[in-house]
Amino acid sequence: MDGNGRWAESKGKHRVFGHKHGVKSLRRAISFASEKQIQALTIYAFSSENWKRPEKEVTMLMELFFTVLGSEVKKLHKHNIKLKIIGEVSGFSERIQKKIAQAEKLTENNSGLALNVAANYGGRWDITQAAKQLAGLVQKGELTLDEITEDRLSSAINLDQLPAVDLMIRTGGDHRISNFLLWQLAYAELYFSDILWPDFNAQAFQDALDVFSGKERRFGQTSEQVALG
Asked: How much is the pTM?
């Protein structure tokens, strides 16, 4: 969800103004995904690299995260949405960790849209923590090297309970994935939009889906093989 700061600066406002408006865009995106019966929506809210931003902005983002967790979770629950925070949660303050636990607990049995919020998350971290899990099992004698397969590693990576990602959308004009879901995006279609996140609406979301629906997804096969099913 890129472009909040630039959007605010283009209007002569502080970057916090853009982040607050970005929350409104997020609400629209969640509503759209739920209405379209999309199985899962994963949003990149705060990367492990975002701690490098100016201290004032990071502090504001943490406060915004805390506030949104408190104000939005009941609405998510009302609409049968299941919330999951992925990332190194231990890096947050105790009060934010408590809010996260409460939000996940409230929505854990919901069967609608799976909303995953990547916070203090990095794709390299995700793969590393999975490797450490398997290494620990090997050290304990509970797993052999030959038993370490792609499927076994995948089971230790976040979102393992969900199908592989089909489509990644990045707003803001940059054409890179910035350490997001590196393992999970292996066969995803990538869609880059010049729209800054606060301006991303239902039509922009639909445009991305329309482009995606026109893609031929071969997964290593030829077009002829795909046509034959």
From this structure: 0.92
